[in-house]
Amino acid sequence: MSDNEIVQLCLNPSTREQGYKILVNVYAKKIYWHVRRMVTDHDDANDVVQNCFVKIWKGLPDFRQDSKLFTWVYRIATNESITFINEKYRRSSITLETEGESYTSHLKTDPWFDGDETKRQLQLAIDSLPDKQKQVFVMRYYDEMKYEEMEAILGTTTGALKASYHHAVKKIEIFLKERLNQT
Amino acid sequence: MEPINDKLNQQLKEQQLLVPEGYFEQLEQDIFKATTGVKQIEITARKQPTLIKRLIIVTAVAASIALVYIGVNLFSKDKITRLGVQFAEMTDAEINNYMDEQIASLSYDDLYGYLNTNVDDLSTDVLFASTYSDAGQIDESITGELHEQVLDQDVMNSVIDQSPIMLDETIMDSIDNELLQEYFNDATLFENLGL
């Protein structure tokens, strides 16, 4: 079923629940991975995804089709992830830069993280990126989104997105070189 | 995809994040549970108000605008602001003429009334009271200077101890030394002081 058909079902009060179930079925997994790559922790991602879909359900009657369903859903997920990350670090008064070692040891014991020391450092490198660069990196690299789609979701120009992606890759490379050369 | 470091590329592409088995089936159920009973935000079109209501609204808006306009003219555009604007546009000569005209237009009664009500802070008592904490004594700095240049210390002390006159430090500083000497050498001074 196309996004347009899902939207039509969702906008009709009599078929809204049916449309929503299809929407969840189509997007739950994609949104989970998008959020998971942003927040890293499985339990955190689980909470954020549920919040995203509650917001989607609440906003469905007012969805004006100014943007595509895909764009709208990803925008909600991205914003929820960023809000969650900022709130989490604000509450704990720490940053990834300062908690580096404890974060990598947390990943060692995380049952939902499978990777050696290199992969842990890699995850830390991604998580240490500024929000915007992290968003762009995750969307471009993992989700393999086109810049035009990212532009619609993040409300940033393609030029700025390309620049952010370039900076993110460079930072990750530098981070890894420093960390892996130390060990 | 832009070319990046090969090692990094290979590492990043490998999935290192895992989920519990059957998680996504459960996730859908959890999402439906979470949304059950959640009210949706439905923005319905507003009912059009009746003609009378619309008239009342228009009248009220017009009255509010009129009140705001009057208020702005009464309170915001005060005379000082207008005068400031006028001065900004005038030349120095025009300002001088303006000031002369304004001063000339003041009557004697106006000036007298103004001085009576505004010069309290400049009265002699207040000035002296703020300079000396102990009436009847002359500031030590003045006496020191006098001792060196004018008077014998004993005479000076007797003047200080008995003089009802309070001398202002700032006034004394501004007096030429020769004049001061002349003043104290004047025989009538001590007579006036009852010495």
Could you please describe the fold and organization of this structure?
- The complex is a heterodimer of chains A (183) and B (195).
- By secondary structure, chain A is mostly helical.
- Chain A has helices at 3-11, 16-39, 42-59, 69-92, 96-109, 117-127, 131-142, 147-154, 158-182.
- In chain A, helix 2 (16-39) crosses helix 4 (69-92).
- The mean pLDDT of chain A is 84.
- Chain B is mainly alpha-helical and 195 residues long.
- In chain B, 67% of the residues lie in helices and 0% in strands.
- Chain B is elongated and about 120 Å long.
- At the A-B interface, helix 2, helix 3, helix 6, helix 7 and helix 9 of A face helix 1 and helix 2 of B.
Strand content of chain B: under 5%
Q: N- to C-terminal separation of chain A?
A: 51 Å
Distinct helical segment count of chain A? 9
User: What is the SS-derived class of chain B?
Assistant: mainly alpha
Rg of chain A to the nearest angstrom? 18 Å
Quick structural gist:
Chain A has 183 residues and is an all-alpha fold. Helices cover 79% and strands 0% of the residues of chain A. Chain B contains twelve helices and no strands.
How would you describe this structure in keywords?
heterodimer, A: 183 residues, mainly alpha, 9 helices, 79% helix, B: mainly alpha, elongated
Which SSEs are present, and which pair or pack?
The complex is a heterodimer of chains A (183) and B (195).
Chain A: H1 3-11, H2 16-39, H3 42-59, H4 69-92, H5 96-109, H6 117-127, H7 131-142, H8 147-154, H9 158-182
Chain B: H1 6-13, H2 23-35, H3 51-76, H4 79-89, H5 92-104, H6 108-118, H7 124-131, H8 140-149, H9 153-162, H10 169-174, H11 177-185, H12 187-192
